[in-house]
Amino acid sequence: MIDTLRIFAPLAWRNLWRNPRRTLITLIVVSVGLWSVLAFNSFLEAWTQASKDTTLKLLLGQGQIHAPGYMDDPGVEKLMPPPDATLRAALDDPRIASWAMRLVVPAVVQSEYKTLPVMVVGVDPKSERKVSSIPGKVVAGRYLSGPRDDGVVIGQHLADRLKTGLGRRVILMSQGADGKLAQQSFDIVGLYDADQQTEDYYVFTGRKAEQEFLGLSGQIAEIVFTIPREADLAPVIADLQKAAPALDVRSWKKLSPFLAATNAFMGGFIYIWLAVVFTLMAIGIVNTQLMAVFERTHEFGLLQALGMKPRLILIMVTMESTLLIGLGVVVGAIIAAATIWAARDGIDLSAFAKGLELVQGGQILFPKFDGRAFFEFSLAIWLLGIAVALWPAWRASRASPVEVMRQTT
Fold first, then answer.
1. Are 157 and 81 contained in the same domain?
2. Quick check: 204 and 121 in contact, CB under 8 A?
3. Pairing, β 98-110 against β 169-175
4. Does residue 329 sit in the same domain as residue 380?
5. Is residue 391 part of a domain?
């Protein structure tokens, strides 16, 4: 078999270039198809990662810890004490990059002109900067200076809706620890720019200042933590659940099912695109290979008349397709790698910032070279292309010497 391949390989390569135009058309079909799959996969992964990072770094983190029932009915009745020594030791695990405590309760904010529902988030600014991107999104005024800072930072869109602004005062009203209405005026010390939903819904103040406002004695609503490596998420969640069995420990996938579903869908969408591309490629490959077979029917019949077995004709034509599709795969992979390399410094989508805010999409995409994806998709295209080309090769092997001789006489 090795000797047969060694003999037919040069012959198959020469046969490819008997019709350079047809060969180039097939090369273009295969290379462009593979390039679109590899480049699209890289850009899709970059988009998915950017959107995921944007959402997680905003407020969600990789996971959160709450008192049982808080997620169903957030309020002062469902708060928890600060972490004990066991939970702190688990949170200080090297796999956890950072963590922060927050006091988050529903409230009403009132300006001179309007009253709107919000969530008041009490934070420790030093810890919050490590787990959230909000402190870096302040575009006017300043962020909070400490946990006792009784100023508030609100979203730009919320300020517009309240018809208020930096340096003005608003009144926050919420249920206090005694069950009665607690209300207090706060100075607006900063405005932040995020997606519209976040701007409209979240108001930030110092954690201790909010505790005093509500009459609490140190209780918190949640602990948010970040984990650099996604592979560490499940074991870290398990360790935290062991350290605090009475608390509700959830990963971002359970905190935001929509984001998890979107992330999973984007991961599988590339295979849908692969199926579409391959279908189009298969049509092109079959058409061009059948044309080549029909044009060489006399040649195949004559070879059989001279003693060549149909099996050897099948091997020769299949080898031609193998070399042709293989060359197209190599060219497509090279072009895809060059495309990704050209975008290594990032793709700036800030011109579409308003639209991206609606889906919390990242404004800068960083496509990365994925060697595994290159190998798997290239091999899949090559093998599937060869499989499609087997039908024209089989047709070539079925050429009848008698029919060929009758057609030529």
1. yes
2. yes
3. antiparallel
4. yes
5. yes
Q: Which residues pair with 206 in a beta bridge?
A: 123
Alpha helices in 59-189 (DSSP H): 85-91, 125-131, 156-162
Last residue of some domain: 246, 269, 301?
246
State pTM to two decimals.
0.73
28/98 same-domain check: no
Look at residues 244, 242, 245, 264 and name the one whose alpha carbon lies nearest to residue 253: 264
Distance in angstroms (rounded) separating the CA atoms of residues 286 and 391? 8
Answer with the one of 190, 223, 246 that is the final residue of a domain.
Answer: 246
Per-residue pLDDT of the chain (409 residues; tens, 9 = 90+): 565 656 666 766 676 667 778 778 888 888 888 888 888 888 888 877 777 788 888 888 999 999 999 988 888 889 999 999 999 999 999 999 999 999 999 999 999 889 999 999 999 999 999 999 999 999 999 999 999 999 999 999 999 999 998 989 999 999 998 888 999 999 999 999 988 888 999 999 999 999 999 999 889 999 999 998 888 999 999 999 999 999 999 999 898 887 777 777 766 777 787 778 778 777 777 777 766 666 666 666 666 666 667 677 667 777 777 888 888 889 999 999 998 888 877 776 655 555 445 555 556 677 888 888 888 888 888 887 777 777 666 666 665 555 555 554 4
The reply to whether 82 and 171 lie within a common domain is yes
- As for how many domains the chain has, the answer is 2
Name the token pair of 33: 């198809």
How many Å apart are CA 150 and CA 204, to the nearest integer? 10
Residue with tokens 């969640």: 237
Residues 6+ apart with CB under 8 A from 156: 139, 140, 191, 192, 193, 199
Identify whether 62 is part of a domain.
no
125 in the same domain as 42: no
Domain co-membership, 268 together with 136: no
Q: What is the CA radius of gyration of the chain?
A: 32
Question: Residue 291 region, left (φ>0) first, then alpha (ψ -120 to 50), else beta?
Answer: alpha
Structure tokens at 248: 């509700």
Residue 339 sits in which domain range? Answer: 2-55+260-408
The full DSSP string for 235-276 is HHHHHHHHH-TTSEEEEHHHH-HHHHHHHHHHHHHHHHHHHH
